[in-house]
Amino acid sequence: MPFPIAPLRHRLTGWRGILALLLLIAVVVVAFRFLRGEIVPVAIAERGELRQAVVASGRVRTPQRIEIAAQITGRVLAVEVQEGISVIPDQVLLRLDDNEWKASAAQARAALSQNEARQRQIGVLGMPVAEQTARQAEANAIQAKKQFERVGELAARGFYSTAQQDDARRARDVAESQWRAAQLQLTSNQPGGSDAQVARSNVEQARAALDVALAKLAYATLRSPVTGTVLTRAVEPGDTVQPGKVLMTVAPEWKTELTAQIDEKNLALLAVGQSAQASADAYPGERFKASVIYIAPSVDAQRGSVEIRLLVDEAPAYLKHEMTISVDIESAYKKDALIAPFDTIREAGGTQPWIMLVRDGTTVRQAVKLGIRGSGKVEVLEGIAAGDALLPATLNMAEGRRVRAVNR
Fold first, then answer.
1. Cα dihedral angle (190, 195, 199, 205), rounded to 10 degrees?
2. DSSP string over 175-222
3. How many domains does the chain divide into?
4. 283-316 pLDDT per residue, tens
């Protein structure tokens, strides 16, 4: 029986038509996809607020610490304060045994009273007595002189012997000598005289000795020189302390300051007066305001950092000395900036940053000029406009590609 060739040819022609149709459909799909382009995620450039910040870690700074030390050797009788206690000026911190210094002060006070009495005696009694003595000595000298002259006249007439004349001369000389001595004593007892000067000097020395004794007595009671907080205490009742040994440290009441080390590459972003937000690591959910008040004039070569200090406007009650803190310093602010995600910028650290964007369904390389930087965002000063679709920098795609942009 002969094989039916015509029906077979008909069937083969039908399969070829189907294959050709499928091939045509595939070509149309590929062409359609090519013409429309690959689907790519994009970010949209937009306008809005942008804050540039420098972030750093630091500590609560104690501007000054006052070390409380004994100035005399003594045994501690009582310690009146504990660590963490607030103190005011002249508040007693601790007491030393002061019996010896009380006795020394009493002795110095008695010596001063004795010398003051001696000074008063010279003024009240010594001066009048010296005046009377001088008058009496003057009268005696005048009388002795007259007697000597009379004896001389009588001796010339033969009524007195030479021996009697010599006795009269000696009596005159003695009387004159006593008169001169009385005059010197009178001069000495006057306000500018030597006795008065000696008495005044003795009083001054006694008063200085009393001041020294009272000062040492005061050293036995250690008091706070300022309003502040007791940070450390290294003494207990019964201890024997030596001069110069630090017994306590007091932090004066001061406006709270923060100190932090900033990477030197951020130095150009900092300026005195900039505001900041800070938080203590122990209370990460609590934030408080601060402002930059000091930027060190030199860079720490070992760490490549710059020290800054910030003043806390209103310190929260939980803030403690040396507490670890984090600061977020606002270095720049733009109310209406053209903003792009930082991950869309290519060669951002170079001299010619650029962006790959999508225009009319085609990738376009565009050079840009950058401004301030915020958290994951950057200001674009030139090169793009609001609404432009920007490709992520991680997407490696050549310029001129047909793409379909989809917001990521």
1. 130
2. HHHHHHHHHHHHHHHSTTSHHHHHHHHHHHHHHHHHHHHHHHHHHTEE
3. 3
4. 988 999 999 999 999 998 888 899 999 999 888 8
pTM score, two decimals?
A: 0.48
253: DSSP letter: P
Same domain, 238 and 188: no
The whole-angstrom separation of Cα 288 and Cα 278 is 5
Residue 125 DSSP code: I
Residues 265, 266, 268, 272: is their CA dihedral positive or negative? negative
Whether residues 93 and 224 fall in one domain: yes
Structure tokens at 232: 């450390």
The SS3 call for residue 372 is strand
> Which residues fall within 8 angstroms of residue 303, CB to CB, at 6 or more apart?
261
Domain that residue 157 falls in = 100-217
DSSP tag of 143: H
- Kindly state whether residues 84 and 116 are assigned to the same domain: no
CATH of the domain at 388: 2.40.420.20
Q: For 319-346, how does the pLDDT look when each residue is reduced to its tens digit (9 = 90+)?
A: 888 899 999 998 888 889 999 999 999 9
Beta partners for residue 56, in sequence order: 327
**Residues composing the chain:** 408
Residues 213 and 155 in one domain: yes
Directed axis angle between helix 194-219 and helix 99-121, to 10°? 160
Looking at the structure, do residues 93 and 231 belong to the same domain, yes or no? yes
Closest listed residue to residue 319, CA positions, set 263, 262, 251? 251
SS (H, E, C) 53-89: EEEEEEEEECCCCEEEECCCCEEEEEECCCCCCEECC
Pairing state between β 403-407 and 38-44: parallel
Q: Are residues 120 and 190 in the same domain?
A: yes
Map tokens 């050079």 to a residue. Answer: 367
Asked if residue 266 belongs to a domain, the reply is no
Per-residue pLDDT band at 220 (split at 50, 70, 90): very high
